[in-house]
Amino acid sequence: MRKQLIIGITATIIGAGALSAGLASAKDGWDRCGDRHEGGHHGKYEQMEGKHSARRLDQMADKLSLTAEQKNQMQELFQQQRGQRQDQRGAMRDMHHALRNLDVNASDYDQQVADLVTKAQEQTAQMIQMRAQQKKAMFEILTPEQQQTFMEMRPEKPRS
């Protein structure tokens, strides 16, 4: 039972990482291989993410009637979040590589997998805490009316 749980959690983490990478690479025609010669293969993604957050901020400013000061504060918050998201993606990528590179025939293979599961659980907990703190920081910028409007803007996503 415990092995099945570990395998299930590991598969979920790997699947989520692969899905995130696939969605990110499919967005706006991003070509990972096409820009490796131009200062690294992540440069184009970082530019896209900056454009996305600027577009998201403009939409938010319109729908929430943000003041210029609020918009500036949100822009600073989004900049800070971008670095944190990059760190999270890097940590998840490292775990994915570590799992892929494990030697199945190693005598301590099960322990290595268990250690990776523990690290993945810690990363997931950190990610949840980070997102909660980001939402809290955003709500500190918004007025109560804007907070209510923001919550109404977010549609319920069906889970399968």
Automatic annotation (TrEMBL):
It is found in: Periplasm. The keyword Signal applies. This is Spy/CpxP family protein refolding chaperone. Keywords: Periplasm, Signal. Gene3D superfamilies: 1.20.120.1490. Belongs to the CpxP/Spy family. Pfam families: LTXXQ (PF07813). Its main location: periplasm. Residues 1-26 form the signal peptide.
